[in-house]
Each structure stands twice: as C-alpha cells, then as structure tokens.
Automatic annotation (TrEMBL):
Pfam families named among the record's database cross-references: Polysacc_synt_3
Subcellular location: Cell membrane
Membrane topology, from the record: Multi-pass membrane protein
Coarse class of the protein's main subcellular location: membrane
UniProt protein name: Polysaccharide biosynthesis protein
Entry-linked PANTHER family: O-ANTIGEN TRANSPORTER-RELATED (PTHR30250:SF11), PST FAMILY PREDICTED COLANIC ACID TRANSPORTER (PTHR30250)
Species lineage: Bacteria, Pseudomonadati, Pseudomonadota, Alphaproteobacteria, Sphingomonadales
A GO-annotated cellular component: plasma membrane
Transmembrane segments: 38-61, 93-116, 128-146, 167-186, 192-211, 255-276, 319-342, 348-373, 385-404, 410-430, 442-463, 469-491
Domain of life: Bacteria
InterPro entries reported in the protein's UniProt record: Poly_Biosynth_Transport
Entry keyword set: Cell membrane, Membrane, Transmembrane, Transmembrane helix
C-alpha cells in the first residue's frame, strides 16, 4: 500500500459491499445455532451445559489475555502507511495476543484438579471435569490466534475471507467431528476434542490466508518498538476493558448460573441460558456484521473526511433498524416453536430468550456507535460505557435476582446493562464529536419499520400456535418476508440503491424516482 495512493471516498455503498460478504462470513453463527440441538441430543442438557460453561470461560479468558489486540488492528492497520507497517501491527498483535493466552493455558492445565470443584455438574459427569479442563484449555491459544488472524483480514477490508473458515471448517467440521467421536463411544469428552480439532484446522487455514494479505517477510523483521507497534499495543490496552466487559455480558451469566445453582441444576441452567443466547445471536449477527465493516471503514473515513463518517454512521443505523426490529419480533413471537428443537426441557428458557431478543435488537440499533467511537474518539472515552453498563447490570441483578427464577432474573439484569452499554457511546459521539445517526430520514424509517414489526410479530404469533413441523418453516418465512418488507418500504430510495445488484435482484428498488 503506497503512501501516495489516492484513498477513495467511504460511502454507504462501501458499507453495503463489505456487509454482503461479512454477513455470509458470520452465517457460521447460524450453522452453530443449528448444531446446538444436535449437541443437546447427543450429550444431554447437563453435559451440554458443562461444555457451555467451559467454552464461556475460554471466551472470557481470551478477551482478557489477548490484550485487546483484535480491536487494536481495526484502528491501526487501516491507517498504516505501508505493507511493512501493517505487518508490524500484525506481529505486535500476535505476540501480545497469543503469547499470554498460551501461558495462561499452561497454568490452568497444571492446576486443573484444583479448579474442577468450582464447577457444578451432573454427578455422572464429575469424573470428566478434570480431563475436560486439561484438554479444552488449549482452545484458548488456538482461539486467540484465529480471532487475531481473522481480525487482521477485516482490518485489510477483506470482509469475506472468513466465509469458508467460519462456515465450512470451524462450525461444520466441529459438528462432523463431534458426531464421529460420539458414534465412536467417546461420550462428552468427544465434544471437547471435536472443538479442538475444528479450531486447529481453522488456525492452519488462517496462516494461508494471512500470507495473501500481509508480507511474511516484513512480518519476520522489526520488533524494535516502531511507532505502529507502540500504537497497536496501546490501542489494544485502551479497548481491553470494553472488550472484556462486552464479553462478560455474553458469557458471564452462564458462569454465574452454574455457580449459584448446585449440581446438575447449575449445569442445566448454564445450558438453558446458552441456548437462549445462541438463538438471540441471530439478531446479534446483524450488529456484529455492521461492526466488522464499520470499524475499518470509519477509521479510513476519519483519515480523509469526518463528513464521510457521519454519512455511513446514519446509513448503517437506518439499515440495522429495518432488519433487527422485525427479526427480533418474529423470533420472540415464535420462541416456543424454536425452543422445541432443543427438547421439552428447553421451554424453561422462553422468558430468557424473549428478553435477550429485544435487548439484542436495541443493542443493534444503538450499538453501531461503539466501533465509530473506537476509531474517532480519544481512548479514555471508550471506557465509560463499559464500566457504566456493567455497574447497571450488577445493580439490576442485586434488585431483581431473588424475586424471580434465577435464569430469568440473571438474563433480565444482563439485558438491562447490555442496552445501557450500547446507548452510552451514542450519547458520547453526539456530545463530544457532534456525530449522531438520527438525521431527518430516520423518523420516517422508524415509524414505518415499527408498523411492519407489529404486523410481522402478530403473524408469527399465529404461526407459533400451529404444530411445530408447520410452525418452524412458517416462522422462518415470516422473518425473511418482514426484513424484505422493512427494507423495501421503510428505507429511502438511496439506501436501497446502495445495495446494488443484490437490491435489484431482490426487487428492493422500485420504479419510484429517488
């Protein structure tokens, strides 16, 4: 990348192009959701709960000990002046992101027998806990490597590079390995080994992908504390608290439920929360796809012109609202049918699922401000939302838990904190940077979108009363139709036109004059 190369303007079309491939890449999350009922069927709810608790722990540890390096590259690589600088940023991220995770994995493996009693599991799974920890903890450095490598792709604005990694290898191969180990008589231990196998294959493929977009020759050189290396290190540390707290909202509830409920009840509650979280992640997928695109694009736009940031910020918020709100309403209305995929025990998670769905929708609409804040504001501003959000969640939990069942109470407290944490960056950008996404076009989009949301939710509620084999496909059709209708009738012409060929093929662009 040459310093003198002209930088094209960042527009809504830039967001739409990146979004298309990123949505495909993140469809691995949908494959993961489909796999969860099979894991519950093969290994039981309590066994799945143990797996969910250990994977939640790995995720939390990775977000702490990667030192924020995945987010750091979203800020420094797009603003790097050469391939050598980009390679230096990647080298710094790998050194400070994977190295600590490797050390922590070794320590946990050594002390596995001391840590095992902290987990509540079914009595039949108790002998498995120590070997499960010793095996599964090595997912920590593997996951850190995969996260940093795929983040490096996004930082190069190569948004589709994760597609075959996230769908074919990481998710489908995990399911295939789990099935093979189950048939081979490995039991629950096979699920942990399958997870490691899929991560190892993904990590190997990541190296091949990195070689296409980063100079490995430059990667081997340096390490002498250049400006880009220092910037990457400090950018990671600055965003680390926010990353850790964001991950806490996703994974800590399962750990808390496992700790406060004894024996198999703790494992089952963790499994039920994880089921609700996985299903609600369909809505979260909308926000994540935009976040992946917005962080590097906003960083690039900020380098050229603040007005470009304002334009793509408003555009992304309108498009998210048109997708996330009807999707959440349809899934909430059809929650009983969706949970039936996991067996009769899963119906206990219905209230938690509905709460999480609407919390994720609110987070999606407000939360696009977070990646914008990360790249245009001072580092210290990124901490306010995280600390305030977790404080609200803890306070809400103290008031709520005990007045309802543990699963619903913990989920509600988590969701309140989640929405607060998503909303604060919106206020910060408006007050400190004079940036907000609610331009004169937004009220019309919001009103039309809400009307369509109520209609779609009502239709899904009626479909949910039908037998599951009929209800489930109907709910999927209603969800897709409601998203199409919201984009087609709620968004202004220019927004739909930015979708390009896909918009024309889906008939999202009518004959009206823009």
């Amino acid at each position: 990348m040459s310093e003198s190369a002209a930088q094209p303007a960042v527009t809504s079309r830039s967001v739409a192009r990146g979004l298309g491939t990123t949505v495909l890449a993140r469809l691995g999350a949908v494959v993961e959701i489909v796999a969860q009922p099979l894991y519950v069927l093969m290994f039981g709810l309590a066994g799945y709960g143990l797996y969910a608790v250990l994977w939640a722990t790995i995720n939390l540890l990775e977000n702490i000990f990667d030192l924020g390096m995945t987010s750091a590259m979203q800020r420094t690589v797009p603003q790097s002046a050469s391939d050598a600088e980009a390679a230096a940023a990647l080298r710094t991220a790998m050194l400070f992101g994977v190295g600590p995770c490797l050390a922590v994995a070794g320590i946990i493996a050594f002390f596995a027998a001391d840590l095992a009693p902290l987990l509540n599991v079914a009595e039949r799974d108790r002998p498995l806990v120590v070997p499960a920890i010793q095996i599964f903890v090595w997912a920590l450095p593997l996951w850190a490597f995969v996260e940093i490598a795929t983040s490096a792709m996004r930082a190069r604005m190569v948004f589709g590079a994760e597609i075959r990694l996230r769908i074919v290898w990481e998710q489908i191969m995990r399911l295939v390995f789990a099935g093979l180990f189950f048939v081979g008589g490995f039991g629950l231990k096979g699920l942990f080994i399958a997870h490691l196998c899929s991560l190892a294959i993904t990590a190997i493929l990541c190296v091949r992908l990195l070689s296409r977009y980063y100079s490995f020759g430059d990667l081997r050189r340096g390490g002498r504390g250049s400006d880009i290396e220092r910037q990457t290190f400090w950018a990671g540390l600055s965003i680390l608290p926010s990353n850790v707290i964001a991950r806490l909202f996703g994974d800590a509830p399962a750990l808390i439920l496992n700790l406060i409920l004894p024996g198999a009840a703790g494992a089952a509650a963790a499994g039920l929360f994880t089921i609700a979280r996985k299903l609600s992640s369909v809505v979260q997928l909308v926000r994540i796809a935009f976040v992946y695109v917005m962080a590097p694009l906003a960083s690039s736009a900020e380098r050229e012109d603040r007005a470009q940031v304002a334009d793509i910020y408003a555009y992304a918020t309108r498009l998210i609202a048109a997708i996330a709100l009807p999707l959440a309403a349809v899934l909430a209305a059809g929650s009983a049918s969706l949970l039936s995929l996991f067996g009769g025990q899963a119906q206990a998670a219905q209230a938690a699922l509905i709460i999480l769905l609407f919390a994720r929708a609110a987070e999606a609409v407000l939360g696009i401000s977070s990646p914008v804040l990360q790249v245009v504001s001072a580092f210290r501003h990124q901490l306010t939302a995280s600390f305030f959000g977790v404080g609200v969640a803890v306070g809400a939990g103290w008031l709520i838990v005990g007045h309802m069942d543990a699963l619903t109470g913990v989920t509600l407290a988590t969701s309140i904190g989640l929405v607060v944490m998503a909303g604060i960056p919106t206020l910060q950008l408006a007050m400190n940077e004079k940036l907000h996404p609610f331009d004169r076009q937004f009220p019309v989009v919001a009103i039309r979108g809400m009307v369509l949301t109520f209609v779609a939710g009502g239709a899904a509620l009626l479909a949910d009363r039908l037998p599951d084999p009929i209800a489930l496909p109907l709910i999927v059709i209603i969800a897709l139709a409601s998203i199409w209708a919201a984009i087609r009738f709620a968004l202004p012409y220019a927004d739909r036109a930015s979708l390009g060929k896909a918009g024309r093929k889906l008939r999202l662009i009518g004959s009206e004059v823009p």
